[in-house]
Amino acid sequence: MVSMVSGCLMYTVLVANATAMIATIDPAAKEYKSKMSRLEHYISFMKLPPELQLRINKYYQARYGGKWFHEKDVMDTVSSALKEQILMVMCSRLLRKAPLFKYRDENFISAVAVKLEYEIFLEGDVIVRQNVPGDRMFFIDHGQVLTEADADERELCDGDFFGESCMLTKGKHLATAKALTDCQCFSLRWDDFQEALEGFPDVKKDLEKLVLLNAEGGLV
């Protein structure tokens, strides 16, 4: 436990020193340092165990890389056309790898892309659990994920996806998904997907038929 505490303190000191060096010339780094300071006060107040402190610090490093920003704030400052272009560049290739979106019209892909949320998961995180109701589908931008369903295991990596059954039925996850490495993902919520579908009745009807076919085949 002593070594764990020492390691935690050393990690925190190193992060603080690194951010302090560039904070004077980088406003985003300065804001990050301020956020980290408040976070450390919170962690201390809550008396969180050292191993959890390390994971929290690691998450912030993986998520923000020493510079504080928020996607929503950034996206709200650009035009809707630019926001759409940014997200299409980042996400269209991921969407089109999933059968649900592979052959869909570009306008529909664009409508779905703007609904995606960027998420970070650390090595060891359980992202979803089998037989638990789900409301999101995940697209792996970078990292490795292990899915486990009964005796079946699959390793997923960059460009793969999981949780797609939830987009069709909002049912339970068919497998547990665990991050094997730190993972950068995009997620799509069921409610947001349904909102995107409202503008594309033909696609909505097509997916409703797919749900019926899968249900008849015992696949959902």
Give an overview of the whole structure.
The chain has a 4-stranded antiparallel β-sheet. The chain has a 4-stranded antiparallel β-sheet with strand order 2-7-4-5, with no helix packed on it. The longest helix is centred in the first third of the chain and has 22 residues. About 50% of the residues lie in helices and about 15% in strands. It is built from 9 helices and 8 strands. The chain has about 220 residues and is α+β, with helices and mostly antiparallel strands. Helix 1 runs parallel beside helix 3 and helix 5 crosses helix 6. It folds into 2 domains: about 70 residues; about 140 residues, Jelly Rolls, CATH 2.60.120. A hairpin with a 2-residue loop joins strand 4 and strand 5. The model has no long low-confidence stretch (mean pLDDT about 80).
Layout of helices and strands:
Elements: H1 2-23, H2 27-46, H3 50-64, H4 71-75, H5 80-95, H6 106-113, E1 117-121, E2 126-128, E3 136-142, E4 145-149, E5 152-156, E6 161-162, H7 165-169, E7 176-179, E8 183-189, H8 190-197, H9 201-216
Antiparallel strand pairs: 1-8, 2-7, 3-6, 3-8, 4-5, 4-7
Helix pairs in contact: 1-2, 1-3, 5-6
Secondary structure tally, helices: 9
Number of strands: 8
CATH topology of the largest domain: Jelly Rolls
Low-confidence stretches: none
**Secondary structural class:** alpha+beta
Head-to-tail CA distance between termini: 47 Å
Biggest sheet overview: 4 strands, antiparallel
Give the count of structural domains: 2
Shape: globular
CATH class wording of the largest domain: Mainly Beta
Over all CA atoms, what is the radius of gyration? Answer: 20 Å
CATH architecture heading of the largest domain:
Sandwich
